[in-house]
Amino acid sequence: MDNLTHSLVGAAMSQAGLKKKTGLALPALVIGANLPDIDAACFFWLEGTEHLGFRRGITHGPPAWVLLPLVLAAILWGFDRWQDKRGKRPEKRLPVRFGWLYALAFIGCLSHPALDWLNVYGIRLLEPFSSQWFYGDTLFIIDVWLWAILIGSLWLSVRAEKRGRNWQRPASIGLALSVFYISLNGAITWFDYNTGGKFREPYPAEYISSPVPFAFWEREHIARLPSGRWIASAWDGTDFGAGYRNSEAAQCELPDFGELRKTNSQLDAFLFWSRAPFGESQRDGSLNLYDARFYDPRARERFSVALPQVRCQELVPD
Fold first, then answer.
1. Of 118, 220, 256, 315, which shows the fewest CB atoms inside 10 Å?
2. Is the distance from CB of 11 to CB of 30 less than 8 angstroms?
3. What is the helix (H) or strand (E) element at residue 252, kind and residue range?
């Protein structure tokens, strides 16, 4: 999910009452909820699609859940001591307890992979023990309805706190509504996958029920047919195979990339990350690789690999 969502969840947990446990609880939860995304620094040394194979991996796995909150707790604890020595520690700040700092940073950090798992991009939850990708297919990566729930509940909580009322209740209700909303979206995806797209004809070899922006009740149907051809459509109530958004370019049969992956780091990273790879013919007859999950014209170039040395062999029509 986007970092605003992660931050809002951390802040909501703080306003739900966790900030009463120790001083600096709010930064422990909010920063902790964003900590795994330190892997975004890979953009400074990785090029092209190499970042696709690096993101949501080692910093999102079990060792990071334990170590990153420990580092954050130590920094916050040291900051509090530094302020105290300089006589600049706020008088209203609660005593800082390292154990609670670590616990809250840990909770915040755990919320991050839990949210990242919810979309179609995927996450390697068991890295470095396993590089398997996991997909929740539940929420679009930026969900404005989840924003509205969390921002609204936080606003009510802060206002109630200023007025001396029960400020924990609005934040707790907001978190409960968020869980309900996520569960509802999970049920929509399950229903679509099990009673909608999966069993429509022609039966696909692989099917992805992909959440879309704004219209949380809709799903984009992404499917790989037995021929290897990928197709996609908006939710329109039509039978499987009708009403699809198709490219005018011909899709290509994917060759064995085993040897080429050894010398092409862009290709290797793309195929390691891609869940729905397909090849598309270019004007010169060469092949470009894309991912069917991110084929929107505004995003496709960021999720593609050009292979000018590979010639396109068109797929047999279904």
1. 256
2. yes
3. strand 251-252
The pLDDT, as a whole number, for residue 242 is 42
Q: How far is it, in rounded angstroms, from Cα 288 to Cα 279?
A: 5
Whether the CA torsion 270, 234, 210, 35 is positive or negative: it is positive
pTM reported for the whole predicted model: 0.91
Q: Which of 138, 121, 135, 122 is nearest to 181 (CA)?
A: 138
- The predicted-structure confidence for 201-228, as pLDDT tens digits, reads as follows 667 788 899 998 999 998 888 888 888 8
| Residues whose CB falls within 8 Å of the CB of residue 136, separated by 6 or more in sequence, listed in order | 117, 118, 119, 186
Backbone torsion region of residue 129, taken as left when φ is above 0, otherwise alpha when ψ lies between -120 and 50, otherwise beta? alpha
The dihedral built from the CA positions of residue 24, 25, 27 and 32, taken in this order, carries a sign that is: positive
Contact 290, 260 (CB under 8 A): no
Phi, psi at 206, each rounded to 5°: -150, 145
Contact 137, 119 (CB under 8 A): yes
Cα angle for residues 29, 34, 40 (degrees, 5° grid): 165
180's tokens: 């309900």
Helix and strand numbers (H, E) in the chain are: 9, 7
Secondary structure class of 307 (helix, strand, coil) = strand
pLDDT tens column, 166-203:
999 999 999 999 999 999 999 999 998 887 655 566 67
Q: If 0-12 CB within 10 Å is exposed, 13-18 middle and 19+ buried, where does residue 246 land? A: exposed
> Which residues neighbour 209 within 8 Å (Cβ) at sequence distance 6 or greater?
137, 189, 192, 193, 196, 197, 219, 220, 221, 222
Using one digit for the tens of pLDDT, what is the confidence trace for 132-161?
999 999 999 999 999 999 999 999 999 999
Phi, psi angles (nearest 5°) of residue 83: -65, -40
